[in-house]
Design a protein that fits this description.
- The complex is a heterodimer of chains A (781) and B (147).
- Chain A is elongated and about 125 Å long.
- Chain A is built from 23 helices and 29 strands.
- With 781 residues, chain A is α+β, with helices and mostly antiparallel strands.
- In chain A, the strands form six sheets. In chain A, strands 10-14-15-13-12-11 form a six-stranded mixed β-sheet.
- Chain A folds into five domains: 174 residues, Four Helix Bundle (Hemerythrin (Met), subunit A), CATH 1.20.120.160; 57 residues, Helix Hairpins (Orthogonal Bundle); 180 residues, Histidine kinase-like ATPase, C-terminal domain (Heat Shock Protein 90, 2-Layer Sandwich); 156 residues, OB fold (Dihydrolipoamide Acetyltransferase, E2P); 146 residues, CheA-289, Domain 4 (OB fold (Dihydrolipoamide Acetyltransferase, E2P), Beta Barrel).
- Chain B contains three helices and twelve strands.
- Chain B has one domain: CheA-289, Domain 4 (OB fold (Dihydrolipoamide Acetyltransferase, E2P)).
- Chain B has 147 residues and is mainly beta.
- The chains are: A alpha+beta (781), B mainly beta (147).
- Chains A and B meet through β17 and β18 of A and β5, β6, β8 and α3 of B.
Chain lengths: 781, 147
């Protein structure tokens, strides 16, 4: 009978809402046992369940709820004190009812079952008897823990399969429940339960449109229930309207018609208002996801024998509804880890001088167009050496690599797939599949996860973009195709000078790089990456470089042309393009054409840029790249007759002179020049350096000489052409095999420069005999 | 014989092959859809099409069927269908009639088809003058997804 079905559905829906609220209320009650209002709420909840179940002849629910109600009544009128055993039993009652309801959802009839033990316990308490203390929610925690398989964190149902009512334009998200993170056999339950789970029930609160803290038990305006599919359709249409308005605006700027322009302005304003209101319907406070956490922390802490308190800050911070879904599982996992591994037992904490009760602080705030969620605990921190050992043992990283890693990098190892340090895999965590999934899930929605740890605790920071529906993007052209780069990833846009006077592109182990102020930015050619014929000619004057950041690096994409910045509606590129990692979606442009939206992280990874940079220890900041805080040493750059680009540390350069050939005199095997009141020996450097050019006779014309005082005697190093004073880095690559007269070489502006070993040369000079290669006898005196 | 939904086929030509898809599967036919190419996409994907604000994935049927002897020309027609809430477009050379078939004429696909084609062809109907190859769009999409 469809009417009955409908009524049952409504009952189930309301029940779901009640249970959500119950959890929060119970945990609250434990902290504030005298809060009569809370007790009243819980009592009314039980009462509602009992009443509804009577209509459907759900006798199990009726009986259990009745017993629970009686107990609550005693507490309400003060004849019974609330202690933790009572709370435990009440929680168990709530869980039992929830389990029965869940079954009803699937099978549409009440399942068989035996509640006599529970009812007996309740009655014992009602009669004033004693019960042994049990684990929080007794059996249900164990069953919950068994069912919970962290190695299959469920993907939130993509799209909404069944129409789900919404509260006051706030969409329902399948609420957190441990049982949702379940194995295959509970999959039926999952889709069914999402029908029943909901945001806080209307009778308890009506959160205002901007969201609020934990709902108060006061009567406000009754919200409306709206189908989520409808909201999505509306959102899509508003997005298209926004784009059409953009196009309209561009027509208006060219039109001289005032009537037309003012109408366009009106449309503009209304669209703006419509867009922001629509955004509000998508935005939900993070508290919707957080509301279950106090219970989670309580249960996990109890089963671990620890004392932990959860502090929430900024729960009213809002986030796009679909994104909330994506962070739910990661947050659960992180909090679990905190309690299970982070926070120490009370004894250990006492010994360390920490308060017995550990604290986990969950905070959320808006910053820079992102939502930043931080989970911090005051526990023992992550044992970095243990992490390193475990990673090596699992073959995830080599022992040599570990040596070279800084602490900061070692901590990041926990994000590697297959990682877990727990010797014994507990039911709750430690299966080694958690943190990498956390990071993947967060990255999938364009966010980042960062971790820092010390013996005072661990802090995890998740950053996610506020919303994905409409986003500003930079459009670029490659060949005759247009592509969109999300503005979130945009760092800067540069026109880079390629002419001879400019810096050009330099090379870092095969990766082209260019300098951007004090950074070295690696680049890639978009047309090469996409295998499109672009029109970046080889000998073009300048390059259009879009500098972006993602996946932890900053890099530049060389495109044919930068077109414009525009807001776009992100649409899925379809199921068949999921594997093409360089795209995060597609959009439809004003002219009706489709443009692909890049996934910058995907491009970075696919191009191999990241691995190449890591392999060769790329340092972005130029100060770092010099490898020395002094930034290198000054040197004189010059050419020799048989080799270009040779350098001499400025320390050895006392003066620079040019002499006419008639001043050169011959004394024995040497050539000398009278220099002031001293005799300066001349040394032709090209004789001592094996060069790559044939030596020409250097004495046709004036000679350039570098004067160096050695033990008070001037020495003249004859060179072909002096260029400039340059900075050479301290890290000089030694020649292998060692080249005579050369200390080593380095890279300057993309060219190799040899650095002379003057001491060697001077020593040889002392032993020099006239070399046959030089027609010294033809020296004109 | 009654014309039921399950025995009428929308037919079309790709190269010299005559194919059919159940009319109930086809949502739309258009000529001259602009296809935006997607660099680095799997070869079966020709590109993306904007169908009144919805993005459809254009499928290169020649690639899927292993037909290498000819190319698409200007007059390509797109046959749209929907699967799992996503929109797809088959690129074909020309459209032919809607054809009623009789189950008795159904046969297994001939063995001399290419491997690729065998995966997608459900079977054939022997028509008086030619063979109608039955395409299963679901298999087509699933096949591409898997590869």
């Amino acid at each position: 009978m469809s009417n009955n079905d409908q009524i049952l559905d409504e009952f189930l829906l309301e029940a779901g809402e009640i249970f959500d609220q119950l959890d929060a209320n119970f945990v609250q009650l434990e902290k504030a046992p005298d809060d009569k209002k809370l007790v009243g709420n819980i009592f009314r909840a039980m009462h509602t369940l009992k009443g509804g179940s009577g209509f459907f002849a759900f006798t199990r629910i009726e009986k259990v709820a009745h017993a629970g109600e009686s107990l609550l009544n005693q507490i309400r009128d003060g004849s019974r004190k609330l202690d933790s055993v009572t709370i435990d039993v009440l929680l168990e009652t709530s869980d039992r009812l929830r389990a029965i309801i869940r079954d009803v959802e699937t099978n549409r009839v009440e399942p068989e079952g035996d509640d006599s033990q529970l009812i007996a316990d309740l009655n014992t308490l009602i009669a004033g008897g004693q019960l042994e203390r049990r684990l929080a929610a007794g059996m249900s925690l164990e069953t919950r823990a068994e069912e919970d398989q962290p190695d299959a964190p469920s993907e939130p149902e993509p799209g909404i399969v069944d129409p789900q009512p919404v509260l006051q334009a706030q969409a329902i998200i399948p609420s957190f429940d441990d049982e949702d993170l379940v194995t295959e056999d509970d999959h039926d339950n999952m889709s069914a339960s999402s029908l029943g789970d909901a945001v806080p029930a209307p009778s308890f609160s009506a959160p205002s449109a901007t969201g609020s803290e934990a709902p108060k038990a006061s009567e406000l305006i009754q919200p409306v229930k709206v189908n989520v599919e409808l909201l999505d359709r509306l959102m899509n249409m508003v997005s298209e309207l926004v784009l059409a308005r953009n196009r309209l605006l561009s027509f208006a700027t060219h039109s001289g018609d005032p009537g037309f322009n003012s109408t366009v302005r009106t449309i503009d304003m209304v669209t703006l208002g419509l867009q922001s209101s629509m955004m509000e319907t998508r935005m939900q406070p993070v508290s919707h996801v957080w509301s279950k956490f106090p219970r989670l922390v309580r249960d996990v802490a109890q089963s671990c024998g620890k004392k932990v308190e959860l502090v929430q800050k900024g729960a009213e911070t809002e986030l796009d509804r679909t994104l909330l879904e994506s962070i739910r599982d990661p947050l659960i996992h992180i909090i679990r880890n905190s309690v299970d591994h982070g926070i120490e037992t009370p004894e250990v904490r006492r010994a360390k001088g920490k308060p017995e009760t550990g604290t986990i602080t969950l905070s959320s705030m808006h910053e820079n167009g992102m939502v930043v969620i931080t989970i911090a605990d005051d526990g023992a921190g992550i044992d970095i050496s243990k992490v390193a050992q475990s990673a090596v043992k699992k073959g995830l990283v080599s022992a040599q690599r570990i040596e070279t890693m800084a602490d900061r990098e070692l901590v990041d190892l926990i994000f590697l797939p297959g990682f877990s340090t727990s010797e014994t895999v507990t039911n709750l965590s430690g299966r080694g599949v958690g943190m990498d999934v956390v990071r993947t899930n967060v990255q999938k929605i364009g966010g980042t996860v960062d971790i820092s740890t010390s013996d005072k605790g661990t802090k995890l920071q998740i950053q996610i973009p506020l919303t994905l529906a409409i986003m500003p993007a930079v459009f670029v052209r490659c060949g005759d195709q247009r592509f969109a780069i999300p503005q979130n990833n945009l760092f800067e846009m540069v026109r880079h000078d390629l002419t001879d006077n400019g810096p050009g592109l330099e090379d870092f182990y095969g990766v082209p790089v260019f300098r951007l102020r004090n950074k070295l930015i690696p680049v890639l050619f978009l047309n090469k990456e996409l295998k499109i014929k672009g029109d970046i000619a080889e000998n073009k004057d300048s390059l259009s470089i879009v500098v972006v950041q993602a996946a932890g690096i900053c890099f530049g994409m060389i495109v044919d042309e930068v077109l414009f910045i525009q807001e776009v509606v992100v649409k899925s590129a379809g199921p068949l393009l999921k594997g093409t990692t360089i795209y995060s979606g597609a959009t439809i442009l004003g002219d009706g054409f489709v443009a692909m939206i890049f996934d910058i992280a995907g491009i970075a990874i696919r191009s191999g840029l990241i691995s190449k940079l890591l392999e060769n220890d790329f340092k972005e900041d130029l100060e770092e790249a010099k490898g020395d805080s002094e930034g290198g040493q000054p040197a004189l750059l010059f050419d020799l007759a048989n080799q270009n680009r040779v350098a001499l540390p400025l320390d050895y350069v006392d003066r620079l002179e040019i002499f006419q050939p008639n001043r050169i005199e011959r004394r024995g095997p040497h050539y000398v020049i009278v220099y002031g009141d001293k005799i300066m020996r001349l040394i032709w450097l090209s004789e001592y350096i094996k060069g790559d050019m044939a030596p020409e006779d250097p004495r046709n014309g004036n000679i350039s000489v570098i004067v160096h005082y050695h033990s008070d005697q001037p020495l003249g190093f004859v060179v072909k052409q002096i260029h400039d004073i340059v900075q050479i880095p301290h890290n000089i690559v030694g020649s292998n095999p060692p080249q005579p007269g050369v200390l080593g070489s380095t890279i300057l502006k993309g060219n190799v420069v040899s650095i002379l070993n003057i001491e060697d040369i001077i020593r040889w000079g002392d032993l020099a005999i006239a070399r046959p290669a030089m027609a010294l006898d033809t020296a004109r005196v | 014989m009654a014309v039921t939904e399950s025995n009428t086929y929308s037919t079309f030509y790709i190269d010299k092959f005559y194919f059919g898809i159940l009319t109930t599967e086809v949502t739309e036919l258009t000529k001259g859809s602009e296809v935006t190419p997607v660099p680095l996409a799997p070869p079966a994907i020709y590109g993306l099409i904007n169908l009144r604000g919805q993005i459809a994935t254009a499928i290169n049927m020649r690639q899927c069927l292993g037909i290498t002897t000819s190319q698409y020309s200007e007059g390509t027609i797109t046959l749209f269908f929907s699967r799992n809430a996503s929109l797809f477009g088959l690129l074909v050379d020309s459209i032919s009639d809607i054809v009623e078939v009789d189950e008795v004429n159904f046969e297994q696909p001939p063995t001399n088809l290419s491997e690729a084609a065998k995966k997608l062809i459900h079977g054939v109907y022997k028509l008086p003058d030619k063979l109608l190859f039955v395409l299963d769009p679901a298999r087509l999409i699933d096949g591409i997804e898997v590869s």
